[in-house]
């Protein structure tokens, strides 16, 4: 760890928001520096290209989504998770309170908007089946990236594919009360929404660096856990040009805090059964091949 | 075609020279870019009259025809043709063969020729009959379906002439209609033109560089001078309505008249 | 006319003439394959042509089915664009007032990112074929309009005068002179539009669709099925080349009827 | 020449001539405002012009700063596109072999959705200005090329023959005849490209940028700052109209030197 | 200008009629769309010779000039001009004024006129001197900076002539160079042409519809017949090198010759 600090690039999954409070704390409080790492955190140029960037070595680490990691590995992209960040699904189904929809069964004969991705459709199917309906009992409408607007405008009765820690708040701030249906309440295995990802090559070639990074990273989230609003201050301070929507992120971080160490697991932990259960479910939904080995997709040895 | 109703309108117009003049131009001036091209040009022609206009190149002959036809607007002066006073009224009611042939490249000889009839709403069948009637005389029968780029220069000129004369207008403005034709073809078209005039009481105003042509065809030859363009002389030239040059070109009066006009012309160019 | 080649060479020479083109394409594909191999580019980043080819044959049915849907959207969108472009261009050429009033609006329409328009589109017209048609129209009417305006504007004014002396109304001048002489420009616009319509359809499908090649790419992308994405691009390219070729064929046919000058093309490099 | 208006009217009439255009624009804006009010359209869906105007003045500094960056990208991208377009078009017109070899490639290039290209772009050229320039070029070189090809192709072949009799080489024919006579078409392509370059820049900025109007819209969108998105669109529209006007001004200036026929424009609606 | 080195090359070419012929056309045939336009056309002209070509409109005169200049390629036969045998060799080494004026619309009168010099790499200053030298004689001084669309028809024709004659080529092909000019302007340009020929030993091949012009200017008049175009008669016409028509047009030999040619011409058209 002595000598020149090592330059490390971390790509975020999206523009800076409350989800990233911990990593900025680690930067701000010098946890990375302490480990001899010179870390720069960048928002993604193109969110869909993030895992490609990791696999090709353009970026050392990224924050990304667990199901997508498995799908990437299904296609042979050599990426692995080295820490868990958000330990529950954030992706959820949402309906306006006024619609009276409180459980999947209420959706019978209703219109559900999806972003048009197979992943969300599979999630919806499982949720419906868990409450005694089938996919054919609802009308699926692909509304692309206009979930909020469609919901607010009443074009659809419910949407799937929105974050209950973000869109919920946004809608509330706009004056819309909503009901949220969490997928892990309705048959979908609980998975890690956000994980820290790196490439197999990095794990193999530079394990000490990964070790140090994960240590500092987890410490950062620990700090954010202790002082959530303070971490948002840090986030805003370090990203003056990012146009951070304070109103949403201040509320959001309070919802997120419990998720950073849910199920009694410490910050950063990765639990094997949860990978297996998600993997089995994804295989059942034909989202990945049966040949994918979920336990190869993560390396929990760095968090300890 | 529409001369009767409009003729009555002319009665009220005081600038019209004489009631029987089918074409009357008076005091016309025209500028391009603030340079006077025509100044106080006046002329008139009665029914059945054939007037020739000669003058040095660039003196404004084509400009004058553009004004009469309605393509250009005069700075001053009045132009009345069969009772039509405004520029837009005259447009389309005077047959005008321009100096350039201006054939539409995507229309065959027949298609170009019938343009004037087509624009008046005359049906394809009827106009084809009209075109065919004259195509033989104009020597265009063989090329009736050819495209303009397949024609010789003289053929193009004949198509332009045919197009101009097909609509039955009382006034015919012809800007060098025979310039690209050989002597024999030219002769037969000249003869045809004289016959048309004879039988229909039209007015023909012919711009030509060929002094012999002017004398042979016209009843009167007007001489234009340049800078600014104006009419400086008028010569009577009654040599009958049929051309047989062999007789005429040796006749002393003809030679005299030709010399006279050529002298006038060379005076103009020397002064200039 | 050795300086000039006629539009329609005979078939034999036509086939021979295509050989260099085919050779170039093959060379490029081979180069790509080799580069992917040599530089060890991962297939989820840029698949080798052989991988794409395999995917093409594996998913042939899927791709053609979706391509059919995309093609229908394109044809409808294209037809709407042509009508719209002709109408706007005519108005612009007809009067300066129309020109000045409409230009800022149509230019502004080109600067609206579809992603901004998407919520409105989906809410107002739904996610059926209409929304894709609108996106295609947004992409294609502009080149059609601008090219047609240019063609209509640079008409030979002596021809206009000639027609006027024959009694042509403004409308007749427009139909019998300006439209025919604007055809080459018009077809230039159509060629751009034909090609751009393909990407327009893809983007239209990106925001709300359940079929079409754009939809296929949208769902293949997050699943890291890069080979399928590129296979779809190959199909899209074939579609675009086909549409372009169709416009060229129509152009040849129409311009044989309405030759701008002589029915010939100047080729400087081939004497 | 009453049938024709000269290109350059005097200033006085020019200002009066713009009145209808201004009136139309104002009318549209008012209609928009009223519709938003009457239909009770939520401002996160479609903000009223007044809201956009407020945002425009509130964020004036922010918007102009980002607009400046976008403009720089556009100018560079545009310059590259023009060079590329002229080169490709010349090659296509020069020889049929080049034409056949290159057309499929350039058409295919137009069907690649930028979203697919993005990972490659980011990895190969990074996210600096270069990647945006590439996207702008991808959007703009095609209309430039196609229009220029059309202009170069429909040259008067009798003029070509005339120059040959004067001893012109192919190159001289190209420079002294074909280029000047292709100018109207060329400018039609430039006009399309000028406008399209703006959206090209936005899309380029969408994938990897930390500044520019596209970046601003991208981060404003998910935050429901719809007013800011529309304010950015207004700035983009002004940018596009400005670029378009610049091309028109250059066109007027160049075509006054190289008039295609007489230096006049036919206006059918105004006699 | 480059005739000397290439002349020696001709020695080896057997199809050249005679060594002193500057222009030699033999057995030339040409088709358009499988229709024979020219068949077995032969002619030759020696240094200093002025040959006129007359014939009915559409008989193939312009086509023949296109072949000689190198714009078209003959189906059969040979064309040699100052030793240049192939089409591409001849292109640019023969001055050819086409029947259409073909002025570039974006070039002024001066710009169009100097085109031929410019293409040979002659500098602007030098070529401007050349243009100005002749502009006065051609009556173009006043319009030297005008654009083509500002010119009258006759002016355009004079610009085209000026452009064609400025490059100093040994052979001059003129397709109706004076067709749109008035008698006086025409006379002075004709005289200038004769002087040029006198002092430079060039060959002039003139296509004209004006039989008098042909007789007055040419040493020999060739008569073409149509369908397919071919040369059917050759008439000697030595009326000296200076034109003063007043003397000539009354002279009995002149009138006789003119009648003779007109008869030949009308025979052609009647047969056709
Ligand atoms: N559009 C124009 N702009 C400026 N000047 C012009 C224009 N058109 C013609 N002129 C000028 O007007 C004058 C008269 O031209 P016009 O064509 O009427 O001559 P013309 O008598 O018909 O000559 P020609 O016998 O050569 O045909 C000429 O000096 C010409 O240069
Ligand atoms: N591109 C072409 N395609 C087909 N036929 C053509 C083409 N060009 C000319 N012709 C035909 O060739 C013949 C000869 O034309 P050419 O122009 O040589 O005649 P010309 O003797 O010069 O006539 P003019 O005295 O009228 O100028 C004509 O019958 C014409 O129709
Ligand atoms: Mg004239
Ligand atoms: Mg000819």
Written account of the structure:
The complex is a heteropentamer, with 1 copy of chain A (304 residues), 2 copies of chain B (272 residues) and 2 copies of chain C (271 residues). By secondary structure, chain A is of the alpha/beta class. Chain A contains 12 helices and 10 strands. The longest helix of chain B has 20 residues, at 252-271. Chain B has 272 residues and is an alpha/beta fold. Mean pLDDT of chain B is 85; it is low at 1-18. In chain B, the strands form 2 sheets. Chain B has a 6-stranded mixed sheet with strand order 5-6-7-3-8-9, sandwiched between helices. A 3-stranded antiparallel sheet of chain B has the order 2-1-4, with helices on one face. Chain B has helices at 3-10, 61-69, 87-90, 109-113, 115-119, 124-135, 153-165, 183-200, 211-217, 245-248, 252-271; strands at residues 21-32, 35-46, 50-54, 76-81, 95-97, 171-175, 203-207, 220-225, 230-236. Chain C has helices at 11-38, 49-58, 60-94, 96-111, 114-125, 129-153, 157-165, 170-206, 213-220, 226-257; strands at 4-6, 264-266. In chain C, helix 8 (170-206) runs antiparallel to helix 10. Classes of the chains: A alpha/beta (304), B alpha/beta (272), C mainly alpha (271). At the C-D interface, helix 1, helix 4, helix 5, helix 6 and helix 7 of C face helix 1, helix 4, helix 5, helix 6 and helix 7 of D. The structure holds adenosine-5'-triphosphate (2 copies) and magnesium ion (2 copies). Residues 61-62, 99, 175 of chain E line the site of one magnesium ion. One adenosine-5'-triphosphate sits between chains B (32-33, 37, 55, 57-63, 99) and E (143, 149-155, 180).
